[in-house]
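User: Structure tokens for this complex, please. No commentary.
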Amino acid sequence: MSRPVYLDYAATTPVDPRVAAAMAQCLTAEGDFGNPASASHEYGEAAAARVAKARAQVAAAVGAEPQDVVWTSGATEANNLAIFGVAEYYREQGRHIVTARTEHKAVLDPCRELERRGWRVTYLVPDAGGILRPEQIAAALQPDTVLVSIMHVNNEIGVIQDIAALGAICAAHGAWLHVDAAQSVGKCAVAFAEFGVDLMSLSAHKVYGPKGVGALLLSGRGRAEKVHLRALQFGGGQERGMRAGTVATHQVVGMGLAFEMAAPAAPEESQRIAGLREQLWQGLAGLGGVFRNGDPRHSVPHVLNVSFADVEGESLLAAIRGQLAVSTGSACTSALQEPSYVLRALGRDDQLSESSLRFGLGRFSSETDIETAVAVVGGAVTRLRRVGGR
Amino acid sequence: MNYNALTQRYFDAAPTAGVLEGTDVHRGASGHRAQGTWVQFDLRIDAGIIRSARFLCFGCPHTIAVSAWVAEQGVGTALRAALRAASRAALPESVLDLSRRFAVPVEKRGRLLIIEDAWIAALRCAAAQTAH
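Assistant:
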């Protein structure tokens, strides 16, 4: 039996075989399996050299310096470390944070937790296309705002925020700017230093690297002081005391190589993906009652999010299951599906927010995949509308 | 969400989906699309017996599957007997038994009541029109 067509690259990607091979060299007795913190012998030195190379590869891919990189278990941990770390370190300077309603839960949930602990959080609402205006950020800043956390590329709708503009506003105000860039690398230009970002979260598995590894970039260059964090875990002092625990050599080596191969994304590959996305959109739009979510003028080519009128979301997913692997923005809490909070924030009603599909295109996506997707979704939507009397 | 084999079969095939036409067809509906679930039944009654039934449904796979099954199983039922049972269990099987048969999660059982309401509405429509 053939496997479903995979169009969920925004959720995760397969590990590139070259990345897997490099990782395997750090695992067994013949390879560089040493503890990179063991400076007293050559096993540790070899592993440390691998880690240093990976640090340089990640930094180079995103316009940062190697010393900016703090390894984490992924973007979620990086987001938690950035938000809790900054909030706790600067708690005497201020307890106000600015973020957006369309952020990933890995940002929103830490913010909610800080609210429970006494911080104030302003949740900005983007326009109907998902874009935040820099003036919104400026207007939200208060004298005691210590942190602004805005994602670069939205994981659900793919829109790109103007991070450089936000960086300038935050720097002028004195608030630290954290950017969740888990979806950015390999899809659009990422320039940590040039953007004026102070903290940036990264993930390996979105760019053909392994799951379970990511990084938090820390800088504050150009400011009177570097950004500081209060660590969330202790025991060993690794990563300059900001993230204790033995560095997983094979994981960071995989991330380093994946980032090196991902950036900069070749223009012809971006054009190919953009062409496939347009082919997909045109095919789906022909069904009628199909709505594109997110401003296509300001989005990465790899993501297409659409809502279907007169179709119930769970039934749509069930009807395409087994043939197509895509995501829905709606969340399953217990057995019930809830509308996507991101699409609700954009002003979509509950039905359209629940009946959305996110197509994530990637390196191995082909025209045949798109033709299959259009046929499968088209058939399901037509059938469900007929069953529903529309 | 995983579905049992019966739910998957009736959701995929929806064998009784559609509408019936004619003066001997009686219609009942319940629920709201905007609230996520809407069900309609058409019943063709002849000599006091449900001769055929069709359904339309905007809802989750469980709701579609159960609606399809009810429309299929309800054929052959005497209208008067079904109406007498309406206060207790108008459907070919009770809501509780249906929820077991189709492995409907507890959180979704309210949707089976919408199916029951639509079925009862169709029965009552038939009873009212055939009484004249």
